[in-house]
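Example record

Each entry pairs one chain with its bound ligand, guanosine-5'-diphosphate.
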Amino acid sequence: MYLYEYEAKRLFDRAGIPIPRGKVVTTATEAAAVSVQFKGRVVIKAQVQAGGRGKAGLVKIASTPHEATTVTQGILGRTFHGEQVAKVLVEEVVDIAQELYAAIALDTASGLPVILVSSRGGMDIEQVAQETPEALVRFPLEILTTFHPFRAREIWREAGINGEILPKLSAVLEKMVNLFFHLDAYTVEINPLVVTRENRVVAADGKLIVDDAALAKHEEELALCRPASEGLEDEAKKAGLSYVSLDPEGNIGIIAGGAGLSLATMDTVTMLGGKPANFLDTGGGISAEKMAQALRIVLQTPNVKGIIINVFGGINNCLTMAQGISRVIDEDSPRARILVKMRGHSQEEGWALLEKRRLPVIKYGTTAEAVQLLLDLLGADRLEGEQLCRSC
Ligand code: GDP
Ligand code: MN
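Structure tokens for the complex follow.
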């Protein structure tokens, strides 16, 4: 079984191989939301079960959330080797100083595993292998003896690598060998294995092929790298909401009407010193039920201390939205601070309903004012908590 890059990378991560931060998504709006987390600069990569995407224009860098949207729109739905692109991986851009190559593969001639490394990784590795085979170091892997760290260093040295980067690269190679055996893999490949300008080593790509005959043995482990494990995102999708959980340390949950307003709210939260925990666009035609679902999903996002609901009653109706919010307050008594900025159709009725629940409501203010108030309230909560602690 050929794993998708994002699946391979999750397994790399579990094995201790450094990977870029990022997220796999299925829509252009979600891609833009993820890009905000990385100040707009991301690499967007089609998830397909084949290599050579870079040369086919299926790996692209975007510098702004808007660009992330258009780039993703251009990639999703394209066909590559008979497969239609349904997902893209959106990652922070790594600053490349050097692209290396590292792989463990089965040598079909001998039937034995072989390690392959090169200091000339990247998109032209096939050409390197053909034209300058000496630049690709081959090392047969003895399956019955332990693979010692000094071997890993020896191999990289033979590829011309020296200095402080050597131990880091050797650690990655050792982990790849372990993964190869542990998962009954046919191939574990990292190309490019990037050395960054700050001398970090990062797996910028990942290819992992697991023996089909051994799949049953690894069912649980492989399930962990599937998006199905992301419960909240699935729940949101079923409810017809566009939701992406972001920074696991994010403390501010966001619910907004429209992708543009959602992104602007995220930006404002970041600008004023908060950390967005999620992106959620309610879309149009929102019912009380759907608003309640949206709020419940954001409330379940780990670490959320405060939630800003930033909506406009144009297609949507403020009273209906307020009814959904009120239902959650009445039924769940949430502990997180919730602040609502809402204007438009049936606004007076909506405001009244929320104020009855003692929710802070921003009626005519800006998004920045709303976010600032939420952060102030959270700051005051924290102070109060500390004082309580001191007096007890
Ligand atoms: P492949 O062509 O299917 O193997 O896809 P890769 O994931 O290897 O990406 C192709 C190329 O895109 C790489 O060889 C890099 O040169 C480039 N690339 C991928 N990720 C990054 C990144 O984070 N930063 C930069 N600067 N380039 C990247
Ligand atoms: Mn690659």
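Residues 17-93 form a domain with the Dna Ligase; domain 1 fold (CATH 3.30.1490.20).
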